[in-house]
């Protein structure tokens, strides 16, 4: 996130430069630069929130002198090889026989409908007891969670 903030600040201080020049300077793609610039408000909010959380955590741990810096979080994540990963919850819980029979049943039920008219409606429920679907984990390791809570408001 620090790299994104740096790119945003650079873009704001060099408004005459185009996306291509900024992409060259930061060694990334033009699409990535455009997306960062387009989403700059949410990126800056996320960065500010992370810094505030770090200060609060330091105070809770008794470190009243912690100030943090623009690069502290990224350096810490790189030092300990920490990446944000999607949590795989129930990936091993599905019975293959059940899965095969369900797939055949779904094919029968949706025969005659265009694919864009077939919807998975369980994704519209609000899982009010659900855990986050992303977490920090050591790079290269699987990030596994438990079973997801099924209670929801629909």
Automatic annotation (TrEMBL):
InterPro entries (UniProt xref): CenT-Element_Derived (IPR050863), Homeodomain-like_sf (IPR009057), HTH_CenpB_DNA-bd_dom (IPR006600), HTH_Psq (IPR007889)
Gene Ontology MF annotations: DNA binding
Coiled coil ranges: none
Domain HTH CENPB-type: 54-84
GO CC annotations, alphabetized: nucleus
Keywords carried by this UniProt record: DNA-binding, Nucleus
Pfam families assigned to the protein according to its UniProt record, in alphabetical order: CENP-B_N, HTH_Tnp_Tc5
Source superkingdom: Eukaryota
Species whose genome carries this gene: Paramuricea clavata
Segments forming domain HTH psq-type: 3-46
Name this polypeptide is given: Tigger transposable element-derived 6-like
